[in-house]
Design goal:
Layout lengths: L1 H7 L9 H32 L1 H8 L1 H4 L11 H10 L3 E7 L7 E7 L2 E7 L6 E3 L3 H16 L3 H26 L7 H5 L7 H31 L1 H10 L5 H9 L3 H19 L8 H11 L5 E5 L8 E7 L8 E7 L5 E5 L6 H14 L5 H30 L1
Antiparallel strand pairs: 1-2, 1-5, 2-3, 3-4, 5-6, 6-7, 7-8
Helix pairs in contact: 1-15, 2-6, 2-7, 2-15, 6-7, 7-9, 9-10, 9-14, 9-15, 10-14
Length: 396
């Protein structure tokens, strides 16, 4: 027991600042407490980063088709073909890449289904393979709550919060006393003994990935804890959740707008019940008029919950190539209703819309996913190298 206590505590060294001494204690204790959960979080994060790519690979015989000079079947024609098979088209995903197939959402026998579709030949290629989907559901469940429901979610949240503190305390500990020692903190002495290499790996890799790991962890806390979400939204100029709740109670602002939108949709359902629907081709032409750029396009057809056509284009025409969604809606007859450009949204709403792709690394496509993968892999290594440093101290 004495040996264990000695490994968890030491007196302040001569010339060591109180701040660094406190950071050393905090870094050691929180590191040991959260190491296993942080390791699991980073490992599952590594796996989940490539979810879309692996799903596409397992469905490669359906997701990828030979591009052709043949005329692409129009959405109206696709809808008519499905109707002949007693299938009701509910959504359509149109990729930019001509070598990728369409993804159709449809309703059959009161069940919602989806399938890949060859837009050149009209062939229904089949539903997505479910094995990879189930695997990533399990990975996500592990990542979010260790497969232990709400209790696990709280454990994960607390561990990620500790990880954020570890990042900050680790950075303070990394800061060299003098500029001449800076090189030691930026390089690994590969020719040294194992303990020194392990220490350098923990120290150096932690420094290089500090900002991105902190950002990933902070965005993870954003989706776990309402109070973190509150702080970020308020700091970006939005209203706190409590404030919004009070506004809801008095029927003001956000809630008032939502109610007005719901009433408008109810009126549309009633007034346009017997009106002829605009065709999907017409809606897409109108959407191109309001959002005049080429992009991955999804269209949601009117249904019992939402009587409007909803068209979303994923705009990548910006400096960093970020995937930002713009949305335009039309009523059943094709009359323009709303347009939501990402660039017109308040900063807090932009952040809310991008919180998930910012956390997963999908925000800039494959380059940012690869970057997140390696950073998360280093994140996996930090609890291991940190534990080995403590173990060496314990055995001394």
């Amino acid at each position: 027991m004495k040996k264990l206590f000695k490994s968890l505590y030491r007196k302040r060294r001569k010339n060591e600042t109180i701040l660094k001494y406190m950071m050393w204690i905090i870094h050691l204790w929180l590191g040991l407490l959260s190491s296993i959960v942080v390791f699991v979080m980073c490992l599952t994060g590594c796996l989940y980063a490539f979810k879309n790519q692996i799903t596409d690979f397992t469905n490669r015989d359906k997701a990828y088709i030979a591009s052709s000079s043949a005329k692409v079947k129009s959405p109206d024609l696709i809808q008519a073909e499905l109707l002949k098979q007693n299938r009701e088209l509910t959504s359509l995903l149109i990729p930019v890449d001509k070598a990728r197939s369409y993804v159709l959402g449809y309703r059959e026998n009161q069940l919602d289904k989806s399938t890949y579709y060859n837009q050149y030949t009209g062939e229904i290629l089949g539903q997505p393979e479910v094995g990879s989907g189930r695997f990533f559901e399990m990975v996500l469940d592990l990542h979010r709550n260790l497969m232990m429901g709400n209790a696990g979610r709280q454990v994960v949240g607390a561990s990620v919060l500790m990880f954020c503190i570890l990042m900050v305390s680790g950075f303070i500990l990394w800061l060299p006393k003098k500029l001449k020692f800076l090189k030691q903190g930026l390089t690994v002495m590969w020719k040294a003994k194992f303990q020194r290499i392990n220490h350098d790996l923990h120290n150096t890799l932690g420094f290089y990935t500090f900002l991105i790991l902190f950002f990933i962890a902070a965005t993870g806390l954003y989706v776990t804890y309402p109070w973190v979400k509150n702080i970020l939204i308020v700091s970006l100029g939005g209203s706190s959740i409590d404030h919004i709740s009070k506004e809801n109670e008095i029927g003001d602002d956000a809630f008032g707008g939502l109610m007005e939108d719901m009433l408008q949709k109810q009126d549309e359902k009633k007034n346009l019940k017997n009106s002829a629907s605009a065709s999907i081709d017409e809606i897409l032409q109108l959407a191109d008029y309001h959002l005049p750029y080429s992009a991955v396009t999804s269209i949601q057809l009117p249904n019992k919950d939402n009587p409007r056509y909803v068209v979303i284009k994923t705009n990548t025409q910006n400096l960093l190539g970020m995937m930002i969604p713009d949305e335009v809606t039309f009523d059943k007859t094709g009359v323009f209703k709303t347009k939501e450009l990402f660039t017109d949204k308040a900063l807090n709403k932009q952040f809310s819309a991008l919180a998930k792709p910012l956390h997963t690394g999908e925000i800039m496509g494959l380059p940012s996913i690869i970057l997140y993968f390696f950073v998360s892999l280093i994140g996996c290594s930090l609890p291991v190298t940190g534990f080995l440093i403590w173990l060496h101290r314990f055995r001394k």
